[in-house]
Amino acid sequence: MDQQGMKELAGSGAVDALVKSGMKLGLGTGSTAIHVTRRIGALMAEGKLRGIRAFATSFQTVLECEKWGIPLYSLNAPELGGVLDLCIDGADEIDTENRLVKGGGGALLMEKLAAYASAAYAMVVDESKLVEQLGLKFPVPVEVIPEARLTVSLELEKLGAEVFLREAVRKAGPVITEHGNILLDIRFKERIDPAGLEAELNHIPGVVENGFFTRIRPTVFTGRSDGTLEIRK
Ligand code: 5RP
Prior knowledge:
Blueprint: H1 3-18, E1 24-27, H2 33-45, E2 53-56, H3 59-68, E3 84-89, E4 93-94, E5 100-101, H4 108-116, E6 118-126, E7 140-144, H5 149-158, E8 161-165, E9 182-188, H6 194-201, E10 207-210, E11 212-213, E12 219-223, E13 229-232
Parallel strand pairs: 1-2, 1-3, 3-6, 6-12
Antiparallel strand pairs: 4-5, 5-11, 7-9, 7-10, 8-9, 12-13
Ribulose-5-phosphate binds at residues 28-33, 89-92, 102-108, 111.
């Protein structure tokens, strides 16, 4: 099975296993999580899912929900009341303890908000996302207010990180997030403490959020190249 197939298998499998009518859902971002939204939309169209209320973690997800007619709300809306039953999202890396690096699509701020607001959390990935150690292969995004670009970069370097300003594609200059910030992608050469760093990075003035997700452990749905779906709690 190719990578697209693995992503679709994971996304559809998680929806079939976990999503029930009437749920308040957090819908993630990216090329794997989009299969979650599509599967929910298709089940709604067939009349097999009813009463879904959703929070979209990015503009990409909003657009996909609009295509399928999935009702969207602000987390502050009375229909959601700041809490979700279930959030399903993709990841850039997942370690053996189900801790994550996220934010490859630049949506980490809303993704973390949805994850931590949710009673249950699930990840949908293809097998390439499973790693022994976080932060060594895929860079960890740090969302920063633009004025803090240099001061935060210096602090990150003191922590042993290499720092790269995320550049936009088909637009000159940096990526600007949906919240008007920039992204510093950081990479470490040595073993790190992801839980410690998740807290420490957010204490640097000017940092809005970072891509370590260590305090909530998801159920992980992995599409495998042999065509099987692995579920790991
Ligand atoms: C977006 C994310 C994505 O979930 C993550 O980058 C994985 O994306 P993909 O499934 O396309 O590999 O965190 O901010």
